[in-house]
Amino acid sequence: MSMQGKVTSALFKRAKAVIPYGVNSNFRYWGDDDTLVIERGEGAYIWDADGKRYIDYRLGFGPIILGHAYPAVVKKVQDAIQGGTVFAWTTPYEIELCERITKMCNVDKVRLTNTGTEATMHALRIARAYTGRERFIKFEGQYHGMADYFMFSTASTSPGSLGYRRSPINVQSTSGIPKGISQYITNLPFNDFERLEETIEAKWGDIAAIFIEPILGNAAGILPVPGFLEKIRELCDKYGIVMVFDEVKTGFRLAKGGAQEYFNIQADLVTYAKALGNGFPIAAIAGKEDVMMTVQPGQTAHGGTYTGNVTGTAAAIATLDILDSEPILETIHKRGKILMSGIGEILTEADIPHSVTGAPSMFGIILGSDEEPHDFRDYFKGDGDLYERLAMQLIQRGVQPDGDAREPWFLCYSLSEADVDETLNVFNDSVKAVKK
Ligand code: PMP
Question: What distance in Å separates the CA atoms of residue 337 and residue 310, rounded to the nearest whole number?
């Protein structure tokens, strides 16, 4: 059965005529019959072009932390842009926003960008310039945006291709990357202390940075095991490597101060995007004074026409103001815990082996295995097809997680207790339908 109603289907045909595959990001293409066209969103809900309402757990891949079209954010942006949007000078909005970020995230300095990809790309350049080294370490199943350097062994990689875990293979996630790029990247299994120490001890003189998604936000929210982030911190300190937390998904979501606060670890550089602007394009690179000051004009490049633009900064100021002054994340956490345990109970009742991973504001569900996953290789012990069938049942009943178990369920503040109850009822019905 197609997910598209009549109007959606007609619109998607028009989309395909002028946009390759009908989407402006490949992650949004679910096939010709199941790709939706969304007309609007409000609070925790979105409506497709046929007027069908969904409780939204994709939230645009995570940015919506308050709710869609959150009135205070919309108003702040509307007011701000009356006075223009870009001036190629610093604005008071940028100053206020960066002051707020330094306070909330316990960082010394901030530079703004528009997307997560730009933030991680610049963070890599800064780390290289700061250390004078060229290689970096990332972890399998971690996604750091679309720049060539990061498109190896991402969450899109298939299990069989990663190689033996003692000598992981850099698996290129896309065509169109020059062959030579791979030599600068070392992919390691997450949570593997031995591989990490061994690699750093052998190669530290070449390693500029370690990029870390503190929670595997693109692989079902797999958590760091106790001590792993601390071990990275210790090794980075010992060998002068820049520790980069990629908090594009976790920032302003796990805690006001993101994963740094949640796990009580300070990285050297941190990248933020998504929840920072509640759906407006704004991102940031932040971190310690001496590392951030590497962007010396004329020496190390960082910039962009739209970096720090009024639209994004105004949205982010309004979002952070609300996050800072109201019990937003506490409420989301409470609702998320109810959902996680409710989902667990339904699956146990239905005799489906499972593990519910991650944090209450962004959790993953792995079906078909009840082993707690510790790295991306473990993720594949689950049954992704079964999850996809369940997701399709949920979506048909008006609850919309991603169809891919790697993408977490995201929660926003507008999600009410009644929405959580409705979700659990729908989840129960969907599990029954899948079992049939
Ligand atoms: N880093 C992480 C951890 C991400 O999840 C993403 C996007 N999902 C990015 C970077 C790239 O961000 P953007 O899509 O805004 O370029």
Answer: 36
In a domain, 416, yes or no: no
Same domain, 87 and 20: no
Residue 63 in contact with residue 277, Cβ under 8 Å? yes
Distance CA 271, CA 258 (A): 10
Compute the half-sphere exposure of residue 145: CA atoms within 13 Å on the CB side of its CA: 24
- Of the candidates 243, 140, 144, the residue with the CA atom closest to the CA atom of residue 192: 140
State the distance from the centre of ligand 1 to the C-alpha of 143, rounded, in angstroms: 7
| Same domain flag for 150 and 26 | no
Q: Would you say residue 46 has pLDDT above 80?
A: yes
- The tokens for 395 are 């979506």
Mean pLDDT, the chain, as a whole number?
Answer: 97
| Domain C-terminal end among 325, 353, 368 | 325
Share of the chain above pLDDT 90, in %: 99
- 106 and 242 fall within a common domain: yes
Could you write out the DSSP letters of every residue in 78-104? Answer: HHHHTT-S--SS--HHHHHHHHHHHHH
Q: Quick check: helix, strand or coil at residue 187?
A: strand
Any residues with Cβ below 6 Å from ligand 1, and which? 61, 115-117, 120, 143-145, 213, 217-218, 246, 248-249, 273
- Which domain covers residue 33, as residue numbers? 1-51
> Which pLDDT score is estimated for 349?
98
Q: One of 54, 143, 379, 413 is an active-site residue; which one?
A: 143
What's the rounded mean pLDDT across residues 230-236? 98
The pLDDT, as a whole number, for residue 334 is 98
Cα 78 → chain centroid = 27
Determine the 3-state secondary structure of 2 from DSSP: coil
- pTM confidence score: 0.98
Contact between 209 and 241 under an 8 Å Cβ cutoff? The reply is yes
Do 93 and 18 have their domain in common? no
Q: List CB contacts of 122: < 8 A, sequence separation 6 or more.
A: 111, 113, 285, 295, 302
Residue 160 confidence class, pLDDT cut points 50, 70, 90: confident
115 C-alpha to ligand 1 centroid (Å): 7
Q: Is 112 part of a structural domain of the chain?
A: yes
Mutate to test the pocket of ligand 1, among 249, 271, 362, 376 (most ligand atoms within 8 A of CB): 249
Are residues 102 and 163 both part of a single domain? yes
Task: Name the token pair of 61.
Answer: 């891949």
What tens digit of pLDDT does each residue of 302-312 get? 999 999 999 99
From CA 286, how far away is CA 176, in angstroms rounded? 30
Tell me which H or E stretch contains 285.
Answer: strand 283-287
For the segment 138-159, the average pLDDT, to the nearest whole number, is: 95
